[in-house]
């Protein structure tokens, strides 16, 4: 089976940089994904790392180290609208195929 | 672009009642998924499908059933509803295993 660990809460101020860590245990690895969810809304895709290294998309970056079973999401120039929950996710191999398994999420609160 | 559409948005059930949560997507995605999300928690995989006629259990399948007769539709059936099934249910789809998940807006179910 799979397991993912990430901090439950992170707080920061506008303009700051915050890093949300994720460690995982998997029987087979198919990449690490990150999703954002605003309160009451649907999760939306942020980034995917299939190989080691850094992926950058605007103010958001994601990093993966497969040897350490570790990744992180880096949010720069924080804005109030970044207040949301952030989930890391990995694919689990089932009998029919693979499906995404999510961590419990990190609630980010950005204050002014 | 409708994407993933879930109906109903809200529903209140009495203990022991049954219902079907509807999910349809118009992106010709082969993979579809059902997740449940309890308050303040992450997403738990209920069932997933890799194509018409092929489904598999996820992390929390008990009390639910699915079918996938077409590429577009992936309904989730609740039999004998219980208070423990009070949750927000999200349907999602993806193009294969490498694609990001596209989520519907969720169905908020209360069982009393």
β-sheet strand percentage of chain B: over 45%
Q: In angstroms, what is the radius of gyration of chain B?
A: 13 Å
Order of helices and strands of chain A: EEEEEEEEEEE
Which assembly state applies to the chains in this document? Answer: heterodimer
Strand content of chain A: over 45%
Mean pLDDT of chain A: 94
Number of strands of chain B: 11
| Helix share bin of chain B | under 10%
CA radius of gyration of chain A is 14 Å
C-alpha end-to-end distance of chain A: 41 Å
What does this protein structure show overall?
The complex is a heterodimer of chains A (112) and B (112). Chain A is mainly beta and 112 residues long. Chain A is 0% helix and 59% strand. Chain A contains no helices and eleven strands. Chain A has strands at 3-5, 9-13, 18-25, 32-37, 44-49, 53-57, 60-65, 70-75, 84-93, 98-102, 106-111. In chain A, strands 2, 4, 5, 9, 10 and 11 form a six-stranded mixed sheet that branches. A five-stranded antiparallel sheet of chain A has the order 1-3-8-7-6, with no helix packed on it. Chain B is mostly beta strands. Chain B starts with a strand and ends with a strand. In chain B, strands 2, 4, 5, 6, 9, 10 and 11 form a seven-stranded mixed sheet that branches. At the A-B interface, strand 5, strand 9 and strand 10 of A face strand 4, strand 5, strand 6 and strand 10 of B.
Write the layout of secondary structure elements.
The complex is a heterodimer of chains A (112) and B (112).
Chain A: E1 3-5, E2 9-13, E3 18-25, E4 32-37, E5 44-49, E6 53-57, E7 60-65, E8 70-75, E9 84-93, E10 98-102, E11 106-111
Parallel strand pairs in A: 2-11
Antiparallel strand pairs in A: 1-3, 3-8, 4-5, 4-9, 6-7, 7-8, 9-10, 9-11
Chain B: E1 4-7, E2 10-13, E3 19-25, E4 31-37, E5 43-51, E6 54-57, E7 64-66, E8 76-78, E9 87-94, E10 102-103, E11 107-111
Parallel strand pairs in B: 2-11
Antiparallel strand pairs in B: 1-3, 3-8, 4-5, 4-9, 5-6, 7-8, 9-10, 9-11
């Amino acid at each position: 089976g799979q397991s993912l660990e990430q901090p439950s809460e992170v707080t920061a101020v506008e303009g700051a940089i915050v890093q949300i860590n994720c460690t995982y245990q998997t029987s087979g690895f198919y990449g690490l994904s990150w999703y954002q969810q605003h309160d009451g809304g649907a999760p939306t895709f942020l980034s995917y790392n299939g190989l080691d290294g850094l992926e950058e998309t605007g103010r958001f970056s994601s990093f993966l180290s497969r040897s350490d079973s570790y990744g992180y999401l880096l949010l720069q120039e924080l804005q109030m609208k970044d207040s949301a929950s952030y989930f890391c996710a990995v694919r689990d191999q089932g009998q029919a195929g693979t499906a995404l398994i999510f961590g419990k999420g990190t609630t980010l609160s950005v204050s002014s | 672009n409708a994407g993933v559409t879930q109906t109903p948005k809200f529903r209140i059930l009495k203990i022991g009642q049954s219902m079907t949560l509807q999910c349809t997507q118009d992106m010709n995605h082969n993979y579809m998924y059902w997740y449940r999300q309890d308050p303040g928690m992450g997403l738990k995989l209920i069932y997933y499908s890799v194509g018409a006629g092929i489904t598999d259990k996820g992390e929390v399948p008990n009390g639910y059933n699915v079918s996938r007769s077409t590429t577009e539709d992936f309904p989730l059936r609740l039999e004998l509803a219980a208070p423990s099934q009070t949750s927000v249910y999200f349907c999602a789809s993806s193009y294969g295993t490498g694609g990001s998940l596209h989520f519907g807006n969720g169905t908020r179910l209360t069982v009393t």
